[in-house]
Amino acid sequence: MTAKDKLFKMAKGFRGRSKNCYRIAKQSVEKALQYAYRDRKQKKRDMRSLWIQRVNAGSKEHGVPYSKLIYGLHNQNVQINRKMLSELAMYEPYSFKALVDQVKWMRGDAAQPAAQQAAQM
Amino acid sequence: MQAEALTAALGPPQFERIGRVDGRYSVKRTPQFAIVELGPAQYKVSPDDLVISEKLKGVDVNDRLELGRVLMLGSRSETIIGRPHVLGASVTAVVEEQFQDAKVTVFKKRRRKNSRRTMGHRQELTSLRIVGIHGFEAPEAESPAAVAAAA
Fold it and tell me: How much is the pTM?
């Protein structure tokens, strides 16, 4: 495979002459690679923002906004990160509710159920 | 000793080799999960899950590992929240593969300055099959001093 072939391979799906003509494709591919470099870093930021939105939605369902939830968890030295919190909120709603209830109890908003006391470590 | 206090303060080890597995094994799925810390990331795992993590050093294919840093356990009937780690809980895993990720092309360009740099990069990864989750039948009699010391 020549260098030109490799370039055109990277230009698949591009619009117009950017996928066919070498001089134009070269510019487009370079720009695409620059965006890829930048976006690999941005993806990490975007994902965290998504997790935070999901955790916020989940904890507001139980009456606690995201900021208070994170503050409460931080005070109790629970080190579950935002990605996992969002997974819990989506797929393990009862466990997520347990975390929210724990935070509520520590803030003095709600009484702790007996079963939760037994399981608390 | 100061060294012991320092290592105790670090918390349980992330992973430890506890033996080998020969040949085939099959894992039953159970409705349990654990949140385990491995490398810089956390994973929510159930038995018979495949976890792809950063390369683990000193580990070979078909090794059985014990992942010691468990942040939370959950099952149908109970949830155990660790602060930060659940005491006495662990997850057993078997190393399936140590491989390289797909290649990413790292390309940097300074415009109008006739400068370009191209580099290829393949990240080293390890894939683990989760075999078991332990720690649900933890001893209930935790003295307040022990809980406070672990927190």
Answer: 0.82
